Amino acid sequence: MLQRSFYERPVIQVARELIGCYLVREIDGETLVGKIVETEAYAGPLDRAAHSYSNRPTERTKAMFQEAGHAYIYEMHTHALLNVVTGRVGQPHGVLIRAVEPIAGLEVMKQNRATVKRQIDWTNGPGKLTKAFHITKALYAHPLNERPLYIEEGEKGVKIARSPRVGIANSGRAADYPWRFFERGNPYVSTFRK
């Protein structure tokens, strides 16, 4: 498992280096594994697109002000979205896990995504992957170096590309920050829309 020191570094660096790592979810005696292929960095009080832009903890964002390596999970529409808290305590930076490539536990993922026909669509977006891995708000503030949800060191030498983040609107210049990282050529990377 990646230790807290991995997450205590600058958010852009963590977002980039999570590409190729493995997201692991243990549930009901099964182990689900996905290679992280897409992330986005959110730089707290400096970033108009971040939930913690005001730099004040709220009931929704309090996990972002905790120690690095905790899960910040929020709901958007019907989706739970998984973020990793980075930096120092009180420095509310986070990395959104946008997409993973399924590696193990495929039968469970298939059951969790029973209404989705193509495997490629199980985990190629932030709300899709949390459904496939059964990641809910019950795991809010969970330390990501402990079971049942954690991240492990992954593949080395993954070819990484970067772009502006997806779906950022009404955020001024923040919409153009090239803080989205993804594995070049991986089919599980979400479709980019401006």
UniProtKB/TrEMBL annotation:
Its EC number is 3.2.2.-. One of its GO terms (biological process) is base-excision repair. The keyword Hydrolase applies. Keywords: DNA damage, DNA repair, Glycosidase, Hydrolase. GO terms for molecular function: alkylbase DNA N-glycosylase activity; DNA binding. Pfam families: Pur_DNA_glyco. CDD domains: AAG (cd00540). PANTHER family: DNA-3-METHYLADENINE GLYCOSYLASE. Belongs to the DNA glycosylase MPG family. HAMAP family: 3MGH (MF_00527). This is Putative 3-methyladenine DNA glycosylase. It comes from Savagea serpentis. The lineage of its organism: Bacteria, Bacillati, Bacillota, Bacilli, Bacillales.
